[in-house]
Task: inverse folding
């Protein structure tokens, strides 16, 4: 019996040793933890003076700071707002040189990794929109340069998401057309780009707040990029709001599949750590298609073709699949991406490329003026790709069927066939009457070629009779079923 007990004890110890080794290995290979910053032992004298006043003058800011991790680390007002006297936006305040704006350069004193990742992201370039069609609409078509030489529509609209170039007036004040502004691509007086407070709201900088979908919803919503609404329609969004109490949003590492499993948020897929990936502040690092322009392309395809060293779309997609695999099987993920890819290709080939070719043809032969948005077809084309086209593509990317169909492809098709094609013919006819016979002939030939393609055969009347008959039979069966059910 003694030998038997000894054998059991040996086996138990061996098993315990294996479990310990396994646990140590899992810790060694786990995703990197959040950056641990060494706190100050006490609040600085400068910050103590700031707090003494602002506690009375701005009690809400004081309370927010008091709930923050900065408070726990003795990082106060002065540590973030101190400035060099030579800084463009430096002011004298109660004997101190400070700057109202806390820029990524300031945050980078402690959060250097996060700032470097953000600087490499598309978000960091969001403020460079002066020459865009969107900004032209806000400055000229919708607006007027009546507010210190700027359009109020751009100041309170576009720039609050994209970011403004913050300017300092001659008297040292911040130009009210550019401040306040928490646009994600803000161009700061110190030369840095971005606004950490676009996502991490002052002065609490709560992880919980930044991880919720509402953090992204300030900008990613509306008729042309409704990612917030799309998320809410998707199974992911439905699960999040139903199970938010199980999301463990205040976890320090917050690894999907370990710390929570109810649903992903925007941060989960685009930024947060997984069992295999570290946290990143480059929100585009896992995106494989660009769904913003008129015609979608694989991310960085052009850069790679030019020999530039950038992360390929295949590698980006592989990273996103690692996020998906925390909750889904490989076949599920692969099939989803096939569905997504085919929708984007359908949009590109059936509507976007033909539409762009038609607009390019009109521009080539100067059948339109050089001014944007002064002719109906320019509005029609803009709606097609900038609004409906984006909605359909983002709907497919984030699994929101209503945005793919009724807010997307349905409206794209109506816009193309019922508005754009007739408007194109009208413009060509006007050019022909103005003496551009050869140019009109070339423009008509392009439209004929487009509409002769199989995907447009229903519209041109060239669809095979067998296909028509099959659809008619299906429609008849559908009507009969509904008639029988109504009796």
Result:
């Amino acid at each position: 019996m003694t030998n038997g007990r000894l054998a059991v004890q040996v086996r138990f110890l061996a098993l315990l040793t294996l479990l310990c080794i396994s646990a140590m290995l899992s810790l060694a290979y786990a995703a990197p933890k959040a950056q641990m910053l060494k706190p100050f032992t006490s609040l600085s004298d400068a910050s103590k003076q700031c707090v003494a006043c602002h506690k009375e003058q701005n009690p809400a800011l004081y309370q927010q700071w008091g709930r923050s991790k900065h408070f726990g680390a003795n990082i106060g007002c002065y540590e973030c707002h101190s400035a060099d006297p030579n800084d463009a936006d430096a002011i004298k305040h109660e004997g101190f040189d400070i700057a109202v704006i806390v820029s990524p350069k300031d945050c980078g004193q402690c959060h250097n990794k996060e700032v470097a990742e953000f600087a490499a992201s598309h978000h960091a370039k969001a403020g460079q929109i002066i020459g865009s069609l969107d900004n032209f609409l806000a400055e000229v078509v919708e607006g007027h340069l009546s507010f210190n030489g700027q359009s109020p529509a751009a100041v309170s609209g576009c720039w609050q998401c994209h970011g403004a170039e913050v300017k300092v007036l001659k008297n040292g004040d911040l130009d009210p057309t550019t401040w306040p502004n928490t646009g994600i691509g803000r161009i700061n007086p110190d030369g840095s780009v971005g606004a950490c407070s676009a996502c991490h709201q002052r002065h609490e900088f709560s992880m919980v707040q930044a991880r919720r979908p509402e953090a992204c919803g300030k900008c990613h919503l509306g008729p042309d990029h409704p990612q917030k609404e799309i998320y809410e329609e998707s199974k992911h969004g439905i699960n999040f709001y139903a199970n938010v109490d199980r999301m463990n949003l205040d976890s320090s590492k917050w690894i999907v599949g370990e710390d929570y499993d109810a649903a992903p948020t925007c941060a989960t897929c685009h930024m947060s750590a997984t069992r295999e990936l570290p946290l990143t502040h480059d929100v585009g690092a896992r995106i494989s298609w660009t769904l913003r322009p008129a015609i979608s392309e694989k991310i960085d395809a052009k850069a790679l073709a030019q020999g530039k060293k950038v992360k390929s779309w295949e590698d980006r997609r592989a990273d996103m699949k690692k996020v998906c695999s925390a909750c889904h099987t490989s076949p599920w993920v692969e099939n989803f991406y096939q569905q997504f890819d085919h929708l984007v290709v359908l949009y590109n080939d059936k509507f976007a490329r033909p539409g762009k070719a038609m607009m390019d043809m009109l521009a080539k032969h100067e059948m339109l003026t050089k001014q944007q948005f002064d002719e109906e077809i320019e509005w029609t084309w803009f709606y097609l790709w900038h609004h409906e086209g984006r909605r359909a593509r983002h709907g497919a990317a984030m699994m929101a069927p209503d945005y793919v169909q009724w807010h997307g492809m349905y409206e794209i098709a109506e816009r193309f066939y019922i508005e754009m094609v007739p408007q194109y013919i009208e413009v060509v006819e006007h050019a022909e009457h103005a003496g551009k016979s050869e140019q009109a002939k070339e423009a008509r030939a392009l439209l004929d070629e487009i509409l002769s393609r199989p995907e447009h055969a229903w519209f041109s009347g060239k669809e095979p009779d067998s296909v028509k008959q099959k659809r008619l039979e299906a429609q008849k069966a559908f009507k009969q079923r509904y008639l029988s059910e109504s009796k």
